[in-house]
Design goal:
The complex is a heterodimer.
Chain A (H helix, E strand, L loop, with lengths): L2 H5 L7 H13 L7 H12 L4 H11 L3 H10 L11 E6 L2 H5 L2 H12 L12 E6 L11 E3 L2 E3 L7 H8 L1
Parallel strand pairs in A: 1-2
Antiparallel strand pairs in A: 1-3, 3-4
Helix pairs in contact in A: 2-3, 3-4
Chain B lengths: L2 E6 L2 E6 L4 H7 L23 E4 L6 E2 L10 E3 L3 H17 L14 H8 L23 E3 L9 H9 L5 E4 L6 E4 L15 H5 L5 E3 L10 E6 L8 E7 L2 E7 L12 H5 L14 E4 L2 E4 L2 H19 L4 E4 L6 H15 L4 E2 L7 H11 L16 E5 L3 H4 L1 H12 L3 E5 L5 H5 L2 E3 L6 H14 L5 H7 E2 L1 H8 L4 H8 L3 H13 L3 E5 L1 H4 L4 H15 L8 E4 L6 H6 L6 E2 L3 E2 L3 H11 L11 H10 L4 E5 L3 H4 L3 H9 L3 E6 L11 E4 L8 E4 L4 E5 L12 H11 L9 H11 L16 E2 L24 E2 L18 E6 L9 H4 L1 H6 L4 E4 L1 H7 L6 E5 L4 E8 L7 E5 L27 E7 L1
Parallel strand pairs in B: 1-5, 15-16, 15-25, 17-18, 17-21, 18-19, 20-31, 21-22, 25-26, 26-27, 32-36, 33-35
Antiparallel strand pairs in B: 1-2, 3-4, 3-5, 6-9, 7-8, 10-11, 11-12, 13-14, 13-27, 23-24, 28-29, 29-30, 32-37, 33-36, 34-35, 34-37
Helix pairs in contact in B: 7-25, 8-25, 8-26, 9-19, 13-16, 13-17, 13-19, 22-24
Classes of the chains: A alpha+beta, B alpha/beta.
Bound molecules: iron/sulfur cluster (3 copies) and FE2/S2 (inorganic) cluster (2 copies).
The site of one iron/sulfur cluster has 14 residues of chain B, from helix 6 and helix 11.
Amino acid sequence: MSKDQTNQCCCGGNNEQFAKLDEVLVKYEGVKGALIPVLQEAQNVYGYLSKDIITRIGEKLGIATSQIYGVATFYSQFHLKPRGRNIIRVCQGTACHVRGAKAILQALEDNLKISAGSTTPDLKFTLETVACIGACGLAPVLMINDDTHGRLTPEAIPGILAKYA
Amino acid sequence: MSQVTLSIDGNKVSVPSNITVLEAATKLAIHIPTLCYLSDLSPEGSCRVCVVEIKGARSLVTACTYPVSEGLEVSTNTPAVLEARRTVVEMLLANHPQECPTCQRSQTCELQSLAHELGIRNVRFTGEKRKYQLDDSNPFIIRDNSKCVLCGRCVRVCKEVQVCNVLEWTERGFTSKVTPTFDSTMKDSSCVFCGTCVSACPVGALTEKSLFGVGKPDKKVKTTCPFCGVGCNFDLNVKNGKVIGVTSNLEGPVNGRLLCVKGRFGTDYVHSPERLTVPLIKKNGNFVESTWDEALDIIAKKFSTIKNTYGSDALAAVSSARCVNEDNYLMQKFMRAVIGTNNIDHCARTCHSPTVAGLATSFGSGAMTNSINEIPDCKVMFIIGANPSEAHPVIGAKMRQALRKGAKLIVADPRKTEMAQKADIWLRLKPGTDVMLINGLMHIIIRNEWSNQKFIANCTTGFDKVKAVVEKYPPDLVEKITGVPAEQLYKAAKLYATSERSSIFYTLGITEHTCGTDNVMSLANLTMLTGHIGKPSTGVNPLRGQNNVQGSCDMGALPNVYPGYQQVSQPESKKKFEKAWNTILSDKPGLTLPDMFDAANRGDLKAMYIMGEDPVLSDADAHHIRSGLLNLDFLVVQNLFLTETAKLADIILPASSFAEKDGTFTNTERRIQRVRQAIAPIGKSRPDWQIIADLATRMGYSMHYDHPCQIMDEIAKLTPAYTGVNYDRIDATGLQWPVPEAGHPGTPYLHSGGNFTCGLGYFMAVEYEPPAEVPDEEFPFLLTTGRILYHYNVSTHKYSKRLSEHAPEERMMLNPEDAIKLDIKENDLVRISSRRGSVTAKAWLTDAVAPGIVWMSFHFSATPTNEVTNGAYDKVTKTYEYKVCAVQVKKA
Ligand code: SF4
Ligand code: SF4
Ligand code: SF4
Ligand code: FES
Ligand code: FES
């Protein structure tokens, strides 16, 4: 890679951040089947895989960006958008469903003003749905990061969110 | 390959052991339905439409992936097989929008025909339909993902054939879909709109925008592309006597399903409202409509008068590399036999005459030595002064296919082109220093004993002189002049010289210099030094620009040679043609294109007949050309459009386009291919050959042909390399010259085994000379010119609506560092001035050009780049030095 090419990047991240990515890339130079570990490490550094990161990985590994994008969207472990500092997983499994999980989800969406699968603009929360987290006894249930909150009512939601704000 | 015997539906067949059950069935003419399979792609085996039963196997297998083996017993239509196929197709239908009546693919849709073939009445399943936004972002392709059946054909075509990797599988399960990276629209992706994926899509998910809302074609006519020298074949789709678009014809010998954006989407120029439809005569400064009789009679009289008053050499003609061979042949015959002069030339002068001159000197034949379809098998490709991804897109695709197969790539180019980015070694030389570079490479090769002594001794002559000259080009000197680090020179020399199959590719970056012929001979030296010539995928390959520039040269639309490069000054050839044409000919070589304009400016030339070209826009130093044309007594222009040159004419004759006539083009790999009439001539326009024959007859020299095939028969009689050519023989796949006798199969690569056309190959010692004009204090930038993918020379920009919509205006490439110094931002209007003239264009900041260099195309009449370029020309062939001149750049 010539110098002028490295200067050319118009990435959101600052140069120091890209230095970390380059470290990862150097580590995997010439290694076969390196794409997935590279994506994982890149996501560890940046929290998500931006267009610029994918483009740069493609250039350095000599893999078409279309292929990287295909892989990144295939595995649910990869995120293409920035994620919130707090990840809310609200259960929509059968047990929770019969005990009013829909209303809980609705309350979350109303409070955060986002729909499931997205992140608040201030990057505080990401809201995701899951099917059964194995705490059916406490239904309806949600998890924020590693904390489980059970026996929920829509009215309880603002208070729970406030603890993480 | 060993053979195995298997039985399919009880029929025994012996086949090579490396094929699939599906391919074996094809040999028995047993039909197995398919969906994700395409014969020119790697099989994916994902749709399961092609399932068959194999005796002893536990479950049904996919015929498109299952290898044959000895004793295999295959059944293709048992109830279980049919039921499985039906289920697959019904599931697809269950997810598919029920929009057949309005779908553009209706009737040619493969999903529909599968449903018919399998006798599906109603669909037993109900399924969720996918609903995606329609991608209507560009003028060429409509992408309707809701109709996609996820066969993956487009993905594989884009990856394996076009090798652009734009489309890919994304997501998974029910939401999986095929999209460009980041789920962007095609416009925002790296797609180059070759449309090859459209040709592969079985359903209405990818369709040609041009073919939307125009109905089904009445007929499809296979013909040859009128744009570049690759010579792709395609089907013109015709409805109600109009060309409505283009679709791939898989039988195209060069390209198969591949085309580029110009060929597939640019032929709308045929029906441009600006086409000339009647002869026009200038009266009191204005053009008035006239009839063929009136116009041709005036021309016949004027030409005769001028000939009788000032002599035959007071007339000159410009023929055209865009016109068919038959037009070119008749044009030179007209000038030689009827007018009596050799003053005939054409735009090959502005590009590849150095190729003809240089390679003819070295090898005895001035053409691409190898075939386009040998490219994917190259081991090393050395591209110098060429940008095939844009100028010869289908050759670019073949090169990417080679890279996919592991070929190594060396690129010598001042610009960071697509190929430069993909190169293993990119030699970023300063413009105009090619001879320095090549001599430097030869120096390294000789010193390291990588040369092919046996080849030099047996097949060539003159090596010692070259050796003595390149002795003077040591790496440190070459590094200083070319700017390429010595270490890179060493690597490139080694890679090129020591590989098994190395091919050189070049275009105008080599020829459009004052030392163009030298450059070409240098490359010839390099191939002989290493013995890299005379074998498949091994040689030196000028990629010729215009569709028929090879043919127009072959036809003798040149001032010094008759058809087949037979010298006018040689008494035997003169006698041969005098006998054939039944007249007395001149043995004095005629004027070249630049000489013609000099002679016109001096007043020595009185009349010109310009067919199919626009020298005012396309030739260097436009002022000089315009003043020359204005100085003539009489100017006839024959063209499709009212070009800048036509505006200066006394009479304009409306010619028919390639879609309106029969004929032949000879592509860059010497393949003579048919052009076929698809529609009637527009308005009162006529094919060029008819106009010329009519004019000749009016001047008292009877030229009568019922059909262009009779002209070809005459060409074959007089042109040794075309002897075995006739319309019947070239009908299906064309023939590559030389075709020295009737029945000869043609010649895919030249100089087989080092037997050069001229016997021994000539080493010609060449010394480096700097370009005629180099940057100085007053004009500090080096301007170099070229073309872009979306346009073709000086014709498409105005007349193809679709191409213009996509690429509407000139942009000048400028390095961002220079931009900062000049305080120029992206899209700022800048003024580019040379000692000759000045133009304006928008700035395009990119490190594709090195600091100190700017680059422009020459496609746009609003930005006539050639007002600025240099009229200096190659000392041997007088090809203008378009590639290098000194300019100033300022914010406008
Ligand atoms: S048009 Fe060509 S480059 Fe674009 S996606 Fe289709 S095949 Fe690929
Ligand atoms: S767009 Fe067409 S070719 Fe591509 S996967 Fe879908 S149906 Fe197949
Ligand atoms: S590559 Fe050349 S010949 Fe082929 S479609 Fe494009 S312009 Fe026409
Ligand atoms: S269904 Fe919600 S935790 Fe099991
Ligand atoms: S055609 Fe064989 S699996 Fe699709």
